[in-house]
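Notebook, student rotation project (T.W.).
Task set for the rotation: take a protein with a known small-molecule partner, predict the structure of the complex, and write up what can be learned from the model alone. Partner molecule chosen: zinc ion. Sequence and SMILES entered below by T.W., checked by me.
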Amino acid sequence: MAQRSTADGLMQSTAEAETLGRASEHKESHESNASDDVKIDAVEILGDWLSQMELTDEKYLRAAPAFRVVECGGRILKQKSRADFAHSTAVKQINKFISHSWQASARSKYMALLVFYNGKAAVVMGFLVAAATMIFFMFDFLPGFMSYAEGGPERKYLGPWCISLGTLMFLLILLFRRPRDLIFLDRLCINQYDEREKSLGVLSLGACLKHSKKIMILWDETFCHRLWCIFELAAFLKTHENTELLAQPLDLTDFLVWKFILNTLVYGGGLVVPYSTNLSDNMFPVLIFIFATCAQCWLVTRIFVCFSQGSEAIQKQLSGFTFAGAQCYCCCANHQTPDGKDIPCDRRVMQQCIQHWFGSVEEFEKVVQTRAKDAFKKHLGGHFCPFWWLAASEIPVLWQQMDVAASRLYERDAHGAIGRIVLGLSVQLLTGPTVFATIILLLRWKPCRGLPLKLLAMALCLCLVFGIHTLFRALFQSLGELSGSLIFAGSFLLPTIILWHVSAYKS
Ligand SMILES: [Zn+2]
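Predicted structure of the complex:
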């Protein structure tokens, strides 16, 4: 459970709470011949209760609609409020149990949930709006201006409508759609302002996991080190033999979101800042273009480095997972409150549960190292970045080319329009993933480290971007937009498939 302080506090408060009484009754039913003079060990009772995965009361199986977490800019992930608990209700089953570490960035978790719940709808709606806009521009319902049309040989009548309205619709859906999926989030489903209720809620955690259809792990580097996160993972693995784990690594969402923002700025800028490839004709815009491309490649390199480090960390942490590596507040505080009272040890409680469920801690470690890792890979793919998520982050290039296609349709040049759509799709689905796979391979190969590696990756990124631009311009000039784009797409198909396959993690 993610509310570490809650959980650690629980061990303190349960000592007096009715909870312990209930847990101890439960234990006595198992060990009726326990000697009276043996002092009941609170840790053993708690461990025994938690490992049975039973509810302390039916009302503690709770869930709330997912929009409660993403409304108001993800306020609930940043600060708690007395009103939070009232948003959840008692349910018979939970759709998704949200497992996360409170040490991870609240902004990243908010973004991860937005992308998970609203990302697909935002991309589809953005695309539909861009397509409708293209038709409107074709029939002259929207104004335009004379521009070089993204490096075209001559000025054309053009408007940046698909990319701007597509992006606007994308953002509106991403930020304001209200997903109603029933989720368990500790802050919503455990009363944080009543110690007794809080303890009973925490003791029902195992049951909540047992009654959850899926678990969604908001993964960051601290996840594997938080004892309660490990407990949640263990309880879910124990009760769901063949269920997929949903993992949303926070580094991945940050990467995709930044990539989308950069793409929107770069491709939108490519439309509104007119430039020509002819230096003598148009020196100033060419310099802007070169500067913008270098800045873009530097930023792209930075987000690539963060993503690559993050995905390597997932790989390493899952492969080398140990229970001993997890930390908890009680052990760090030497099992004493600031005013000198004893705190029972969470680690011992968890260990008891894990031994009960998996036979031994070593067996559990093996399950995480194999089953959890495989489940992550199944959900995220060998790159820890699904192909379609990457393609979605490249959609601004398609919207930009839809604007150029609208300009061609305005001139009743259907071949040019189809050529531009094919070019947009080729960059989104082929050259984008090619650049991704190549840079990821370089970063994983690590011919050097630190700044030199970043500069090398940036140089590679620049070469690829300029190479791709030069290739499609040459093809367009010699073959025309339709044939040129088809040859362009055809020439990248095989290299993209090979590079995508080669750059995936194999083990
Ligand atoms: Zn401890």
